[in-house]
Amino acid sequence: MEQHQHYQSLQDQAYNALRSKIIYAELKPGTRLSAIGLEKETGIGRTPIRESFVRLREQELVETRPKSGTYVSKISMERAENACFLREKLERSVLIKCCSAATPEQKHRLERILAESESLDHSETRRFFDLDNLFHETCFEIAGRHMLWDWMKSINTHFERYNWLRMVSQDLDWEPIRRQHRRILEAIKRGDTDTASYLAETHLHLMPEEQGPVIALHPDYFEPSKDSAI
């Protein structure tokens, strides 16, 4: 049992490390992943690394090419759009639930996340990105739907990758994101379900007009366009 848990821990380590590198564009699309090379780099055995490839392939972060190897996949805007649509619908119910379920301590936790986000400067993009996700994850937790957040992470990968490139590809103004988070928190504090519902439907649509410039800056990161937009 202990040996199995240790193996599972190594597999999780390999998976989490590779997933992070792909989400944050440290591993670019088309990069070939070598279990031997990653074993030398990480000190994790080849078997758990290969098993992590299976999980990454299920999340469409990598693809296996016959007689060639495993490669980091390109970003599919179609999948990103669908993930954005799904998350928007789920967050509407989640934020409505937060209005009635959030305890004073949980509201204070959201306040701390937002306060740190508001204190960051533009040299701390990754921390801002992580706090953005943490704010929403905490809302799912407050609503008793953290399992849904974990599930959504597995289908949200193309949306996350696009969102990260959007953050780092241009001089993105963080203030609209911060303002909407602040409005969401104030709605939760007031128990204002109408405002929370409205903000859930609009918050994820701060970025559509930026899709074209991001793809233009990183054309090799994306699958061929199907003329769709988030």
From TrEMBL:
It comes from the Bacteria. Residues 8-75 form the HTH gntR-type domain. The keyword DNA-binding applies. It holds the Pfam family FCD. SMART domains: FCD, HTH_GNTR. GO terms for molecular function: DNA binding; DNA-binding transcription factor activity. CDD domains: WHTH_GntR. Coiled coil: none annotated. InterPro entries: GntR_C (IPR011711), TF_FadR/GntR_C (IPR008920), Tscrpt_reg_HTH_GntR (IPR000524), WH-like_DNA-bd_sf (IPR036388), WH_DNA-bd_sf (IPR036390). Gene3D superfamilies: GntR ligand-binding domain-like, Winged helix-like DNA-binding domain superfamily/Winged helix DNA-binding domain. Keywords: DNA-binding, Transcription, Transcription regulation. PANTHER family: HTH-TYPE TRANSCRIPTIONAL REPRESSOR RSPR, TRANSCRIPTIONAL REGULATOR, GNTR FAMILY. This is GntR family transcriptional regulator. It comes from Collinsella acetigenes.
